Amino acid sequence: MFDIEWLSYNPDTPSFYVVLLTTLFSFFLSSLIAITYELTTQSIYRRAHFLQSLILIGIVAATVMQAIGDSLARGLGIIGALSIIRFRTVLDDPRNITFMFASLGTGIATGVLGFSVALTGAVVFCLGAIILRFSPMSNNNEFIGEIKLKVPKEDKQQSIIEKLLKQHCRDLELEQIRFLSDKRVQTYTEEGIPKIEEFSRENLQEFTYLIRLKYRASINDMSSDLYKLEGLEDLKLNFRKRPTKL
Q: pTM for the whole thing?
């Protein structure tokens, strides 16, 4: 840790200069973490309030730790006071939670005058985030595709479909199999009289798959191969970003 004897530090009654130094240093490190988050995150949902929170929470943590000092009674009192507050903010992305804890950790380390610990941890954390940003683990293909195929009722159809999907998909999961019944459609004659027409689908089954494409895989190539399936009646393909589930 840095030598701060010249500041005449007293844990019970820290001087103004000690508090000023710790809060400014925590502000600097938290800002470094927030800038790293802004540069490395690939989500377009980057709210300015979240970036501000990353910076400010470090200052809050440093201030709380300075207020506690070496007093056990103060620590218990602050825990009791903070337990009154109910935080309702939900962070769906685990990565956002990690950055929030990183900023909080640097604030705590700075608040107890562990400047070298806070600086080393913040720098290594930011370098790790930058390295991961350009690594294969940073594949931004987070979209989950939903495929619905209507094919003849044959036992071999499922294995044929999955074999074809594995050529283009990193992950796939069979979500649903439906055996289709006859479809009834209401139409009107030229005189405006309604009539009901039935379309027979007794020989059809519908497979629903959730898929994640391989790195640099082409949706067009996959759909072209699917259209070549023998007996394919209908194909629906939809990609959207689903919430992270742990």
A: 0.64
